Automatic annotation (TrEMBL), chain A:
GO CC terms: plasma membrane
Originating species: Nesterenkonia cremea
Ranges for domain MrpA C-terminal/MbhD: 21-84
Start-end of Polar residues biased regions: 94-106
Stretch list, region Disordered: 87-111
Name used for this protein in its record: DUF4040 domain-containing protein
UniProtKB/TrEMBL annotation, chain B:
Homology family: Belongs to the CPA3 antiporters (TC 2.A.63) subunit D family.
Domain of life: Bacteria
Keyword annotations: Cell membrane, Membrane, Transmembrane, Transmembrane helix
Entry protein name: NADH:quinone oxidoreductase/Mrp antiporter transmembrane domain-containing protein
Residue intervals of the NADH:quinone oxidoreductase/Mrp antiporter transmembrane domain: 126-330, 358-455
InterPro entries: CPA3_Na-H_Antiporter_D, ND/Mrp_TM
Transmembrane segment boundaries: 6-25, 32-57, 77-100, 130-149, 161-183, 203-222, 243-263, 283-303, 315-335, 355-384, 405-422, 442-460, 502-523
Topological type in the membrane: Multi-pass membrane protein
Subcellular location: Cell membrane; Membrane
């Protein structure tokens, strides 16, 4: 337990303040009744979480948290909060279906200390307490992959270790995760009206011209930032997921400023771009076993050193586009939930 | 690299490729692609099965990077059995969806189902804890989307299912993190070795096991956590419910078996004598008894709830809740020191580890038998609902006159679910019962007998009215009219053809009983003893 606090307690003050701020933000994201306040709480929670990751020297996780958790999800929540600021009662669906089929069942007061809340808090406390107890008992075993990681980095065609893990050593996990995102996009398209693209043909609300100008000014910067995150990923922090999130926010901004091409021109591209990354990833993985020298044991998803960089880079570019399109599709459908089927 | 090694990754990645390509195709071509993929999966699965039946464990280090740095795929007897289940059930249900597109709900069924299939296979061949989590996520997300294809009414159950699935995944992920902190590796085999060697890490391992068990049991709908399953499985489209009941919940069961029997250092924890270890051993035993008790509760209460249903699909869904209970009854046997001690004593004819292996292969046989039988029953119930526009048992009275083949297949599936000889369900219950007797756990016998009687009751109550002939009443003629209206929409030949997949599953329910010996032998490949 002595290793918990550093010798000089004053060094720990910023960390403790950050932790307390995190808890406060989490409270703000859960307790208030107005959706706008909840969304604001969530946004600050996202920003603080990103800071915590930076403080823990996990720049990649911090960027991903800021881009996906704070950025895209925050944008969605704010949009929903603006559209319908009052949150329905927590069990409104059940209430409506069982007792009164009117919309007037919205509860005016929500008791803070109902049994469910208490049960949830108790479960959380047990979980947190148990985790803390166990955590201090564990003889923290250093990850067993540190040594092989350094030895094998040269074969991957990239120099940043996290990108190496994501696209070479554990490429299989990355592939399945991108498939999860792709299928989320497919699900949204299957459930939304008109293949999920209905929103594209609806007129957008008018926005002040200042905002349009601002978006047009910001768009190139965002594009550059997205591309930088993508290409810097091979030698520094960043990568497909973070870059995809930034590019998706670019698409959202362009949409609000009426700067996106018409539906007729965008529609044919959406599906191919959504699946391109996953398809090319699997096909590149197939090259190893298909062209294998029968004497060598070439496995699935193995990159030959001579074309490793090219393969990793093209897969990453296509994955980025797929992620951006998938996220944008989800935003489109959720933008107007009543408009879906 | 051998064919089996190629198949091991191919069985995951090729369906995923097909799923992605299907997004670009029209709905008819999607069905063709789906059938081709199903046949491909059967072929790949056979390659893995042949290697496993020959007594070899198939292993493949992806990208050529060995664990702990890379990810290792691994197929032993347990994996091969569940792969076969997913291949057989998946192919038959895909055929049904291709014959009767209306039963799939939406053309979006194909990419989502192929993605789900890929995730199921990924879970079954994974040798890595984090990869198992990713596989479970793939299965969970696609399963939720498939439920939502059932139309506006099934959105609410789908959303609820999503919350439960995500909560379960998070608990599982926290457990994975704890094991990583304690063992320093994500590879299951290496983690098991590391945990067995370091007694200090046992507290973390036991806590992780608790969290992961709770998370997975949420996804599996064990009794007190079962409420989400009924509306989700009953509200899903006709071709989706069989997949959910037969395959999707099996992914969580498979991971539970892997964790309890392969990853956890159960022997080392229960045998240690020191104070702390004794506490851990008590905690572990308590967890096993809790899950076993929930299982018994599920068997009895789930069956009683099934008895009280008036509609066919919710009845079948409650039957799933009841059957889930059987798979947890063996856990207390696992940790009972008496059960092992009995084998060594002179005078008993039990071979080494006979109790444990009997209980385990019995439970696996029950799960596999349930997979085939429940898929058939749900497929038939879904088709009846499709054809008659309702699944109220009362209004389906006399449906057997019109669809004799369909009701016959329901009867065959019921044989498997009740556990009558010669079905796999019977073999499973027999193995479980003999192990329970050998270990003197009489309560298991009581639960098995009661569960069997109740399941016979609810299945009879569900199926018998379909066979009863009423005198021609006006309602019947109304149905004839409705039937004719339906027939004009889908050609009658197609409808007749759509009854065949359910019948195939019914036949398989009974015929797989002959494979019981093979299942025991396969379970021995790469078994934890």
């Amino acid at each position: 337990m002595s290793g918990l606090l550093p010798e000089d307690v004053s060094l720990a003050v910023p960390d403790i303040a950050l932790g307390l701020a995190l808890l406060t933000a989490a409270g703000c994201a859960l307790i208030p009744r107005s959706r706008l306040a909840l969304a604001a709480g969530f946004l600050s929670l996202g920003a603080l979480t990103a800071l915590v990751w930076l403080r823990l020297d996990s720049v990649d996780v911090g960027l991903a948290e800021a881009g996906l958790g704070g950025g895209i999800l925050g944008a969605l929540l704010v949009w929903l909060a603006i559209r319908s600021p009052h949150s329905p009662a927590p069990d409104s669906a059940e209430t409506i279906s069982t007792t009164q089929p009117t919309s007037g069942t919205r509860r005016t007061s929500r008791p803070i200390l109902n049994p469910r809340t208490l049960l949830g808090c108790a479960a959380g406390a047990v979980l947190g307490g148990g985790l803390c107890l166990v955590w201090f008992q564990v003889l923290h075993a250093l990850p067993a992959w540190s040594e092989p990681l350094e030895e094998q980095m040269e074969t991957t065609g990239v120099t940043h270790e996290i990108t190496g893990v994501l696209l070479a050593f554990r490429a299989y996990d990355t592939l399945l995760e991108s498939a999860v995102l792709m299928l989320a996009g497919v699900a949204v398209m299957a459930l939304g009206r008109d293949g999920g693209l209905h929103q594209l043909s609806l007129p957008q609300p008018e926005v002040p011209s200042a905002l349009r100008w601002l978006v047009r000014l910001c768009a190139p910067v965002l594009l550059l930032a997205g591309l930088w995150l993508l290409f810097a990923g091979s030698s520094d922090s960043g990568g497909a997921f973070q870059s995809g999130a930034v590019l998706c926010s670019l698409l959202i901004l362009l949409r609000t400023a009426h700067a996106l091409p018409s539906r007729e021109r965008t529609e044919p591209w959406i599906r191919p771009l959504l699946i391109g990354g996953v398809v090319v990833f699997i096909l590149a993985g197939l090259v190893g076993p298909l062209l294998a020298d029968p004497l060598l044991s070439e496995a699935w998803l193995s990159w030959q050193p001579q074309w490793a960089t090219a393969a990793v880079l093209s897969v990453e570019i296509l994955l980025t586009i797929g992620i951006a399109v998938g996220l944008f599709l989800m935003y489109l459908t959720l933008e107007n939930p009543e408009g879906v089927q | 690299m051998t064919t089996a090694e190629f198949s091991l990754a191919g069985i995951v990645l090729l369906p995923l490729l097909a799923s992605a390509v299907a997004v670009l195709l029209g709905s008819r071509v999607r069905a063709v692609l789906g059938i081709l993929t199903a046949l491909l999966i059967c072929g790949l699965c056979t390659a893995v099965l042949i290697q496993t039946a020959a007594g070899g464990i198939t292993e493949l280090a992806l990208g050529g990077y060995e664990a702990p740095l890379g990810i290792r795929l691994r197929a032993d007897g347990l994996s091969a059995l569940f792969l076969c289940l997913s291949a057989v059930v998946g192919t038959v249900v895909s055929a049904h969806a291709a014959i009767l597109p209306a039963s799939a709900g939406h053309p979006g069924f194909w990419p989502l189902w192929l993605g789900c299939w890929s995730g199921l296979n990924a879970v079954f061949v994974s040798g890595d804890l984090f990869n198992t989590y990713v596989g479970l996520e793939l299965v969970g997300l696609t399963a939720v989307a498939l439920v939502a294809l059932g139309g506006r009414d099934s959105w609410m159950p789908a959303l609820r299912y999503l919350f439960v699935a995500v909560l379960g995944s998070l608990l599982f992920l926290v457990g994975v993190g704890l094991i990583l902190a304690a063992a320093g590796t994500l590879d299951m085999e290496q983690a098991a070795q590391q945990l067995a060697e370091t007694p200090e890490a046992h507290a973390a391992a036991v806590f992780a096991l608790c969290l992961m068990s709770v998370g997975l049991v949420l996804k599996l709908a064990l009794m007190p956590m079962h409420r989400w399953l009924i509306p989700a499985h009953a509200g899903a489209p006709g071709a989706v419910s069989p997949l959910l009941s037969a395959l999707v919940i099996k992914a969580a069961l498979f991971v539970i078996l892997r964790l309890w029997l392969w990853v956890m250092p159960l022997d080392a924890t229960t045998e240690a004598e020191t104070g702390l270890a004794e506490g851990l051993s008590t905690a572990l035993t308590a967890l096993a008894w809790t899950l076993g008790g929930f299982g018994a509760l599920a068997v009895i209460l789930g069956s009683v709830m099934a008895l009280r249903q008036d509609r066919l699909k919710p009845l079948v869904a409650y039957s799933t809740v009841a059957q889930v209970g059987y798979w947890f009854l063996f856990l207390p046997l696992l940790l009972d020191p008496e059960a092992g001690a009995l084998e060594g004593q002179p005078g008993t004819t039990l071979a080494e580890d006979a109790v444990l292996s009997g209980a385990l292969s019995g439970s696996v046989a029950l799960a596999l038998g349930h997979g085939v039988a429940k898929a058939g029953l749900f497929l038939a119930a879904g088709l009846l609902k499709e054809l008659w526009g309702t699944d109220e048992i009362e209004s389906l009275r006399g449906a057997g006159r019109r669809h004799p083949l369909l009701i016959l297949s329901m009867g065959l599936c019921a044989v498997g679910l009740i556990g009558l000889p010669i079905s796999l369900g019977f073999t499973g219950k027999w193995h479980l019962a003999t192990s329970a007797v050998a270990a003197e756990h009489w309560w298991i016998i009581a639960v098995l007998v009661l569960g069997t009687l109740l399941s016979a009751g609810y299945l009879l109550r569900g199926i018998a009215p379909l066979l009863l002939q009423d005198a021609k009443d006006p309602q019947d003629q109304e149905h004839d009219a409705a039937q004719d209206a339906d027939a004009s929409a889908e050609s009658p030949r197609r409808q007749r053809l759509a009854e065949v997949p359910a019948f195939v599953l019914g036949l398989l329910t009974v015929l797989t009983g002959f494979l019981a010996v093979g299942i025991d032998a396969l379970m021995g490949v790469g078994a934890p003893w």
